[in-house]
Known about the structure:
The protein is mainly α. Helix content is 62%, strand content 5%. The chain has helices spanning 2-22, 34-44, 51-73, 84-99, 101-105, 128-157, 163-175, 189-197, 203-220, 229-239, 241-244, 250-256, 258-273, 276-296, and strands at 300-306, 312-314, 321-322, 329-332. Strands 1, 2, 3 and 4 form a four-stranded antiparallel β-sheet that branches. The longest helix is centred in the middle third of the chain and has 30 residues, at 128-157. The two termini are 24 Å apart. The model has no long low-confidence stretch (mean pLDDT 86). Its main location: membrane. InterPro entries: SLC26A/SulP_dom, SLC26A/SulP_fam, STAS_dom_sf.
Amino acid sequence: MLDGFATGASFTILTVQAKYLLGLKIPRHQGYGTVVVTWINIFANIHKTNLCDLITSATCIIILVAGKEIQERYKDRLKIPLPTELVVVAGATLASHFGEFNTRYHSSISGHIPTGFIPPQVPAFSMMSRVALDGIPVAVISFAFTVLLSEMFAKKHGYTVRPNQEMVAIGLCNVVPSFFHCFTTSAALAKTMVKDSTGCQTQVSSLISALVVLLVLLFFAPYFQALQKCVLACIIIVSLRGALRKFRDVPAKWRASRTDAIVWLVAMSATALISVELGLLVGIVFSMSCIIYETQNPKVSLLGRINDTNLYEDIEEYKNLTAPSRVKIFRFQ
């Protein structure tokens, strides 16, 4: 269920970023069916593709994928990860600035980025009655999404996660920023994939990321005005390769356990085709339903002896087994 949910969310993120690769200016769909509606709009407006953005996207993807392949192939020899994303951002910014891509070719760029912080204010508690009902599902989804992502990467890298600790952390990360007009804090699949693909392993990476963002907000934002939006989209999409590769594992999942494969497909499809929130809910409910069904329909079998040994196995699964003549050995799993 976790793999299916992550893959469906990855496909949703890829879909949202796809329009930037082509330089299309189509409205972002809100609500259910984002993937379907967005792809319909993309193909309906594909004749408006910006050639400059398309060429830039193709170049950036080739460089990023090449960097990832070199990183994976020679990771034992490389003492530090290749800063491919940083090189791409710096090079693309310089090329866009000196080439005047926005003026000459109407390429979509980041544009003006406001610097500084909004002065802190006490949250308006008078609004609580209006936002409390919407706040509950936001809190549940943000917590569940964070734990699911944590479990997914914990499984990948071989460590354990304590959900209670995550809940305390998310609570603090929402209480403190509430005085600074911040968004709701939660795990971000795209950013997590980017950091994982670049070799980040400890909390130091988050500290460095925060410091870099702080410097950008305070000082460096004007230098990124010329950066094309398609470059950022390329970095996000390339970082999703690992999650999207899960599609190749479906046949193996089906051979190992049809129930698990169906759970994966349902969670992935619901997340991608309906919405991330409902996809998570559908995946959990369907997974629990499958568990209940399995417990109510346990496997039963008659056993036979293997040649002249004291080992017994299911006579329907193995050949040349000898069933006892006067006794039936019944196994209830």
